[in-house]
Every structure is written in C-alpha cells, then in structure tokens.
Amino acid sequence: MRAPAVARAAAGLALAALALAGCTVEPGASAPSPGGSVTIALLLPESKTTRYESIDRPVFEQVVGERCEDCAVLYANASQDAARQQQQAESALTQGADVLVLDAVDSSAAQSIVAAAAERGVAVIAYDRFVADAPLDYFVAYDAARVGQLQGEALVAAVGPTEPGQGVLLVHGASTDPNVAGLKAGLARALADSGLTVLAEYDTPDWSPDKAQEWVQGQLTQYAGRVVGVYAANDGTAGGAISAMRAAGMEPVPPVTGQDAELAAIQRIVAGDQYMTVYKAISQQARTAAELAVRLSRGETPAAVAHVEGVPSVLLAPVAVTREQVDSVIVRGGVHSTEEICVEPYTQACRDLGLIGEGS
C-alpha cells in the first residue's frame, strides 16, 4: 500500500551523521551501542500492545542506524508506569541525551519530562501521544479522531439502527492516553444521528485486555440479550471483549471494532470473530520519528506539514480493514503474510476468503 503523502514527505527528510553520549542503563532500558557521540533516547510506554516491541522499537533503531554511522539509540520501556518513565527520562537527560522521542504513559505526568528536557536544551518529539501545554519540538502520530470515526462508521454500518432495548457497549482505551480523547471525538461524530443506542461505556485502565474482558462480562450479565455490538478502541481490548462474549455463549459474536491490525486481530477478522480493525503503518510512523530525531540532533529545523496546538506535526492517515480488505491492505501491503495468518485453526477461513488455495 502506498504511504500517505504526509508520510512520504516526512520519509524524504535529508539526514546526516549523529553523535552519542554515554548513558547508564535503567530497569527496562537498553544500553546505547558504543562508538557514537550523540544519543537519541526512545521512551515507549508499555509492551502489552504488541506493536511497541515488534514494530516501533526495531524500526526506529534500524532507521537511525541506517541514516548515520556515528550514533546510538538509548531505549527504555516504562511498562505502563508513569513514575518509572519519569526516572528513565531523568537518567537519559542526566547522561547527556540529545533528543528524546517520548511516547508518554500519562500525558499530564509527561509535562515535567518535556519541561526538564527543554531546560537542558534537549529536543523532544512526542511520539504517538500528544503532551499538551508542554514545549514540544515535534509531534508524530496518526490522526486519532479519524481512527475513532472509521471505527464508529464501521460499527454503524455493521449494526445499523438498534431495536428498542438493544444497544452497543463502548470499550475505550486508558483515560491517561491523550489519543483516547481524539478517538472518542471521532466516534461521537460517527454515532451522531445513527440511531444506535449506547448501553454503557468504559475507560480501560492501562489498555488492559483482561480488564476489558472483565468489564464486558459484567455488562453482558446486566444487559443480557441486548448487546448487539461492541466498540473496542484497539485490538487488545477487542480480544478481551470477544473472549467475554464467547464465554457467555454468544454465537455468532456481534460486530466488534479494533485498531492496530495485530496478527491475532486479522486472524479473528478472517474467522468472522472481529468485524474490523484500523491499520496504521506503524513502521512509517517509527521511520518518520527516527528521521526527525536525526535532523534535530544536528540542530536543524525540519519543515512540518501540520500543527497541533502550535506544535509542528506529522499526522499519518489510517485505513479501515474488514474481511474484504485483508488481502489488498494487509497481505499485499506486506503487513502480515498468508503464511502468518492462515495457520490452524484459520486455514479453512482463509480458503473461504480466497487468501489461499484449496491445496494449501
């Protein structure tokens, strides 16, 4: 799939060699590679969402390595602990990090991280999650409101106007994630005047699939026989919701949304257990952030194609994926191969969808 124009523009930024300063290793952090003279610190929020360790981190590190010969990345994962992320950021700054790429656990708590970096003249790129009222240098993310709108539109199309007494559950993400406000705004636009009744909604602490499952289980008891669809903010919470509905004996499972195009979610979509997900080219997002970080480490001021609350920004375009788009977007787009998707027990569903032949 072709990258959005904004992503292509960002990917074309010219890069030069980086330099690295030594950093000590905190819990959840990796040591920078030796031999450089500038450090770029990558601070990610958690690992329950598979994308962070499987895509964001390796792509970011790869791109920095490709774009310069004399550089290193100091990596740390906060495991959904805002205090731990604060300590990791302080360590990186104390040891001389030149650029912070920050995906905040808690956007309010992260304000102090950005302020501390600014005091030291260290550039900060807010990655994936915006940090309001803070002196950011750049923001790289997907348009959260557009993601929420795509999810909501898909849910409305799948469920349609609800019958009296029926309705849907809304399983949002963590309230500490600033993207959730954008997701909710886009969702609200899609649900307005749709005739779709909301029975209950929930902010999932830490984006935890287990907590989403537990909440949905309770709602299925309270609204027995009335739930006809579930808005799930990402694929992890979608998996939790689907597990709860299966345990309750709901067959087939009502339409459930998602986000991130995780392999397990694509398999559920192929099998008909999850209605849709939203694909975001996370590798392009990581690549863009890495390129910006390299430029900033050289003291350059890369041009921005957008602004969010006055902060120069690159906002990439998401794509809705249902069963009909699995082949064109996911397989042919190189996100997941048929060899990865079409393992048992999904082989027959893949054949039915035309992803593999009868002899496969």
List keywords for this structure.
360 residues, alpha/beta, Rossmann fold, 2 domains, 8-stranded mixed sheet, 3-stranded parallel sheet, 13 helices, 17% strand, disordered N terminus
Number of strands: 13
Lateral strand order in the biggest sheet: 1-3-2-4-5-6-12-11
Count of domains: 2
Determine the N-to-C terminus distance. 25 Å
Radius of gyration: 21 Å
Oligomer: single chain
* Helical coverage, percent range: 40-55%
The assigned structural class equals alpha/beta
Biggest beta sheet attributes: 8 strands, mixed
Average pLDDT over all residues: 89
CATH topology of the largest domain, by name, is: Rossmann fold
Choose one word for the global shape: globular
For the record, the CATH class of the largest domain is Alpha Beta
CATH-defined architecture of the largest domain = 3-Layer(aba) Sandwich
What does this structure look like?
The protein has 360 residues and is of the alpha/beta class. Helices cover 40% and strands 17% of the residues. α2 packs across α10 (282-297). It has an 8-stranded mixed β-sheet with strand order 1-3-2-4-5-6-12-11, with helices on both faces. A 3-stranded parallel β-sheet has the order 8-7-9, sandwiched between helices. It has helices at residues 5-11, 51-67, 82-94, 110-119, 144-159, 179-191, 209-222, 235-247, 263-271, 282-297, 326-331, 338-341, 347-353; strands at residues 29-30, 39-44, 72-77, 99-102, 123-127, 138-142, 167-172, 198-203, 227-232, 277-279, 306-308, 311-316, 319-321. It folds into 2 domains: 5-142 and 280-316, Rossmann fold (3-Layer(aba) Sandwich), CATH 3.40.50; 144-279 and 319-353, 3-Layer(aba) Sandwich (Rossmann fold). It is globular and about 60 Å long. The protein is built from 13 helices and 13 strands. The longest helix has 17 residues, at 51-67.
